[in-house]
Write a structure and sequence with these properties.
mainly alpha; 291 residues; disordered N terminus; two-stranded antiparallel sheet; 7 strands; 3-stranded mixed beta sheet; single chain
Length: 291
């Protein structure tokens, strides 16, 4: 007899790797982007102080990342959730609590950008830790609604009196305010298919170089672009959020070329079509750490 737990494990395994090799009839990413969260501005978060030189302390988060991210032979950053216990777990919770008390309206745009990215990533690690062990973050079905999938729509923190979910931070604050496709390389959803959780905290002073590094790292990995039997296969993020990468195949290829190097640049040279996209939803935990 199948238990609820075993049914959920089977469901998770079905969702781990999602290859899509047949393109929608109305263009690459057209069908998938219909079901992805839209960029919709929450204008309350546009407030900022361009003259501010104040800096937010992300030292605790930086130390946790440096201590617990392990880079595997394929260049994937795997986070050792199992090791974050006791004082370190308390430190993470305290850091997130500290960010919730920041008057983020009083900072300049770069400090705000780094703040929201770090908050998103720290909350993602926290929610995985709250439910660990799991095979995939999509098993953490705590979002409201009968057909909830994952934790993204559940309010996880209150900032300046507003309850915020992960989707609020990414799709109602970061994407519409900054209109920067590199956001997708910075926020991490705890999945192997996602761009790496970076091994240091984002900061306002180093933001641009950190975002460029994250973009180059992912684009030049097989998770970003690789050769399939029918042509180039890219990450599903380019299909789900195609509007952020030019809105069509040509725009996506142009974006990839901006960061491509070596073999990846050679693959993209002369490319005018994409064969499909893939994404691996399995948890970004260290190799050999099964649930």
């Amino acid at each position: 007899m199948l238990t609820l737990a075993s049914l959920r494990r089977r469901r998770a395994l079905r969702l781990l790797i999602i290859p899509v090799l047949a393109l929608p009839l109305f263009g690459f990413g057209g069908l998938e982007s219909l079901f992805a969260p839209k960029s919709e501005l929450w204008d309350r978060w546009e407030r900022h102080d361009s003259a501010s030189t104040e800096v937010i302390d992300h030292g605790t988060w930086d130390q946790l990342l440096q201590r617990h991210i392990k880079r595997d032979p394929q260049g994937i950053h795997r986070f050792d959730y199992r090791a974050v216990v006791g004082p370190e777990r308390q430190a993470l919770d305290a850091y997130i609590g500290q960010l919730g008390r920041v008057n983020i309206d009083g900072y300049n745009r770069n400090e705000q950008y780094a703040y929201w990215v770090n908050l998103y990533n720290a909350l993602t690690v926290q929610v995985v830790l709250d439910h660990y062990p799991v095979d995939s973050i999509r098993d953490i079905d705590i979002s409201p609604g009968l057909f909830a999938d994952g934790p993204w729509d559940k309010p996880l923190i209150t900032v300046l009196g507003e309850e915020l979910s992960l989707n609020d931070i990414e799709h109602r604050i970061l994407r519409p305010i900054w209109n920067d496709p590199r956001i997708h390389y910075a926020v991490n959803c705890a999945a192997i298919g996602c761009p790496n959780l970076q091994s240091s905290a984002f900061t306002g002073t180093a933001l641009d170089s950190q975002l460029d590094q994250a973009a180059r790292e992912f684009v030049n990995s097989p998770r970003g672009v690789h050769s399939g039997s029918n042509g180039l296969v890219v990450s599903s993020i380019y299909a789900w959020f195609s509007e952020d990468f030019g809105g069509n195949t040509d725009g996506i290829i142009a974006h990839l070329k901006r960061y491509a190097e070596g073999e990846t640049a050679a693959k993209l040279e002369g490319a005018n079509d994409l064969a499909g996209h893939e994404y691996d939803w399995s948890l970004n935990r260290p190799l050999g750490q099964g649930s």
